[in-house]
Amino acid sequence: MKSEYHVSVVMRDGVGEPAAQGFPRRAIQVRVVDVNDNAPQFLQSHYLIDIEENNPPGASLLRVCAQDADSSLNGQVTYKLGQLSHMAAVIFRIDQNTGQLTVSALLDREQQDVHRLTVVARDNGSPPLKSSVMVTITVLDQNDNAPDFLTPHFIFFLPENIPPLAQVGKMGVSDVDTRLNGEVEVTEVNSSVGPFVIDNVQGTLRYMADVDCEKQDRHELDLLATDNGRPSPLTSVARVTVFIEDVNDNQPQVILPSSNLPCLTISTGTTTGTMVTKIYAIDEDSGLNSEIKYTIAARESPGTSPSSHHHDDSSSSPFQLDTRSGNVTLAHGDGGKPAPLHTTVWVNLLVNDTLEPCHLETLPRSLPYRLAQTPSEKPAETPACDRHARLILLVGLGIMVASLCLFLVTVVLYMKQRKRSRGERQQRRGVNENQIPLRIQERYSSGEAL
Predict the structure, then answer these.
(1) pLDDT interval class at 350 (50, 70, 90)
(2) CA distance 136 to 48
(3) Which of 79, 172, 240, 291 could form a disulfide with 99 if both were Cys (CB 3.0 to 4.6 A apart)?
(4) Are 259 and 237 members of one domain?
(5) CB within 8 A of 411, min separation 6: which ones?
(6) 366 pLDDT exceeds 60?
(7) Residue 433, CB half-sphere, CA atoms under 13 Å: how many?
(8) What is the distance between the alpha carbons of residues 174 and 149, in angstroms, rounded to a whole number?
(9) Quick one: pLDDT at residue 127?
(10) Distance between CA 146 and CA 175 in Å, rounded?
(11) Cis bond before residue 306 (omega within 30° of 0)
(12) Is the pLDDT of residue 364 over 90?
């Protein structure tokens, strides 16, 4: 507080009267010898400093200052950094005499945004005294990082019956910068392409309009991510592929036969195993949804009304339908001996959602074989035995008619012949009316009496 005192000593007599003029006066100089009893004291209790990242190497940060109330060597202060990590010890330097703190390397806010250092001030007393202070260095952000997509190529799968505005997937974009430098907006490079919209609030891609796998099974779009950094925003791009997953929403379309009217005539000489016709259909769906299986939904049984149907029974029909190819083949024929009998019939194939029978509007004018009547052409089909009996009856009736005609012709001829004979007899009788019969003449000549 005070290093030197000056004391004046004045001599007095024994009575206590003031000394006369000329009495001796002495001045005593007292010097206080310093002892190192004060540690260095920093002017601030905590130092704060901001510095932008990507600083030039060797840039000055700040100068710390500590004072020591002692004098001479006891008041001389030197500075050093406290215990640091290896990286911090390489980056930061302090001048031990002036307390100037500098940074010797580039600072990267994305790696570490805050550095905390301890600066120690020590005097040269014996023993020395010291004190420390905290220095906080905040690294300010620069727009030195472009937006980063999670992947350069996003792949999403979307069912074609997804409701509108449903989420397709997360875009996964980020920016390690902060504040405006880290705010990212994603847009489509070609905004008019595809039925999709970008939700920047949720960071998702959403479905906007109808998607149809049969029209387009996938969509390609390019995304552009832009941050709000100033003065020059940074950008990056990514590709998005959206595969439209097929939903079984299309009914099979029958190509063959072309309508419900075409019919097929089968020759009586067709051998077993011959393909007699083919059903061909396509499905606009894909994958398993497009695989078509052919089955007989209903069959019009002989002898029943057109509205009566029953399920397929392969044992009751000579025809077989292949479930995969749609081929209709002749599975077996009539097993009669010695030669199989065949009946040629129309095969009407109706492919429809309902079970309505197939009705033909017209029939071919000429066919190589006589067709049997189908249930749609008459109320009920006559059994084979009845047909044979009817044929026999017709033949019998024909024979009877022919016999009757022959009999009438014979009678007419007989009557004509008889009439002719009678006319000749009458004529002979008129000529020989007066002649004697030969037998009577003989009697006359022999003298016999009549």
Answers:
(1) low
(2) 5
(3) 79
(4) no
(5) none
(6) no
(7) 4
(8) 6
(9) 92
(10) 6
(11) no
(12) no
CB atoms within 10 A of CB 300: 19
- AA letter at 266: I
CA distance to 295, 310, 379, 392, 408, per residue, from 404 (Å): 59, 51, 36, 18, 6
Tokens of 51: 């510095």
Residue 427 lies in a domain: no
The owner of tokens 């339908």 is: 321
Could you tell me if 144 and 175 are in contact, meaning their C-beta atoms sit under 8 angstroms apart?
no
Backbone angles phi, psi at 188, to 5 degrees: -85, 140
Per-residue pLDDT for 115 more than 70? yes
Q: Which domain holds residue 331?
A: 253-348
Q: Which residue has the tokens 């012949």?
A: 417
Alpha helix (H) residue ranges in 357-383: none
Q: How far apart are CA 298 and CA 27, in angstroms?
A: 142
Indicate whether 26 pLDDT > 70. yes
Looking up residue 207, the CATH number of its domain turns out to be 2.60.40.60
What would the pLDDT profile of 255-265 be if each residue is shown by its tens digit? 888 777 777 77
**Chain segment 282-297, per-residue pLDDT in tens:** 877 777 777 888 887 7
For residue 87, what are its two tokens? Answer: 């990286």
Confirm if 125 and 36 have CB atoms less than 8 A apart.
yes
Residue type, 201: V
Residue 107, pLDDT score: 94
Domain assignment present for 364: no
What is the three-class DSSP state of 246?
Answer: coil
